[in-house]
Amino acid sequence: MKITAARVIVCAPGRNFVTLKIETDQGLHGIGDATLNGREMSVVAYLQDHVLPCLIGRDAHAVEDIWQYLYRGAYWRRGPVTMAAIAAVDVALWDLKAKAAALPLYQLLGGASRTRMLCYPHASGADLPELLERIAALRAQGHRAARVQCGIPGLGAVYGVRGGGLNQPAGMPAEQEWDIGAYMRFAPHMLAEVRDAVGETFELLHDTHHRITPIDAARLAREVEPLHLFWLEDLVPAENPEVYRLIRAASTTRLALGEVFNTIHDCREVIQQQLIDFIRASPLHAGGITHIRRIADFAALWQIRTACHGAPDMSPVTFGASLHFDRWVPNFGIQEYAGHPPETAEVFRSDWSYDGDGHLLSGEAPGHGVDIDEVAAARFPYRRSYLATARLADGTAWNY
Ligand code: EZ4
Ligand code: CO
Fold first, then answer.
1. How many angstroms is it from 339 CA to the middle of ligand 2?
2. Across the chain, what does the average pLDDT equal?
3. The pLDDT value given to residue 172
4. N or C: the chain end with fewer CB closer than 10 Å?
5. What is the pLDDT of residue 165?
6. Has residue 364 got a pLDDT over 80?
7. Dihedral angle at the C-alpha atoms of 142, 148, 152, 157, nearest 10 degrees?
8. Mean of the pLDDT values across residues 371-388?
9. 359 pairs with which residues across the strands?
10. For ligand 1, mutation pick of 313, 322, 387 (most atoms within 8 Å of CB)
């Protein structure tokens, strides 16, 4: 099965998505996602100018060799742009291989390790009553877990609360004020109120989005320890993984990390030193199915579980691919299920489903089960847009 054509489709049904379509001489095509939120066109250029010319004529079944060729052959390794581009090729080739075999992708990975995947949608509110209402609505839909984020008294828009991370199409990135003290005073109280309202059995997750310092993170993890959260996510940036030692030593609150990691090398220390409990690498930003299965196997040695990043700024293609990975991976933990804007479903057709009981089903169609309607995609042209940015009250640039 030879690769005869490969092209990049950029569209914005609700938000920007970069999709790679690979065609073969067998009449089959495969789809991969290359979306890097706020930096989309850099991956488009990486693929179009440098990767796609090297793919034409290659054997589409050579998934591993093409991964190694693109990773080693570039000389310049790793990084979000490189790894998202390699991921798009890898996921499209796995899609093709599974379609050629007429099997759902999870069967090629080794078959199902489970029937359904525990998922967590997002619940957020400008204040606690609104957050509690939103959680109640999710429970009414059968959900058993939710990521809970709440507006912080004294601060304006913040990450994770509806409207708080909105990209600004064609404008400049929004700037939001951040205050570590305000967060530290409010977050433990907010999480305690939520635990009180939902009881012990509903799983609560919370994302700090890299916004506090190591010692404050240690304090937060300790203060919320009695609430038995499913996890605290991204307490501090992990460019220097050693800072997590301080947090780890302070409490037994479970920690999740790694949505911005690109390779197994980013993951190595936090896994090897048992500094986290869940690894958030996805088949988009960490080099495709070929690479995250290596990360998952490595994490399994320390009994660390997977939790694929599933944000709205990753296309339905990544969501479909993640669910097939989740269906197979022995050390599965949970799947993020943030959903997409309604227009997204006009462009991407997916065969996964929600079972009405807190779990996702991966679908049985050949491949990863997601395809793109290029005619519909053309109705939603790309518009430059950014994530918001954050500054402290004195003007200091901070982590969004
Ligand atoms: O902010 O993917 O857990 N999920 C997240 C995401 C990230 C976005 C950034 O583009 O933290 O919502
Ligand atoms: Co996150």
1. 14
2. 97
3. 87
4. N
5. 61
6. yes
7. -80
8. 96
9. 118
10. 313
Q: Is the CB of 313 under 6 A from ligand 1?
A: yes
Measured between alpha carbons, how far is residue 373 from residues 9, 238, 335, 377 in Å? 10, 38, 26, 6
Tokens 């998505």 found at: 17
- The arrangement of secondary structure in 109-366, i.e. its CATH architecture, is Alpha-Beta Barrel (3.20)
Q: What are the structural domain ranges in the chain?
A: 3-104, 109-366
| Amino acid identity at 307 | A
* Third-level CATH fold of 3-104: Enolase-like; domain 1 (3.30.390)
Res. 387 pLDDT band, cuts 50 70 90:
very high
Tokens 């796609």, residue located: 52
Strand bridging mode 278-279 / 255-257: parallel
Of 165-169, 181-185, 232-236, 248-252, least confident by mean pLDDT is 165-169
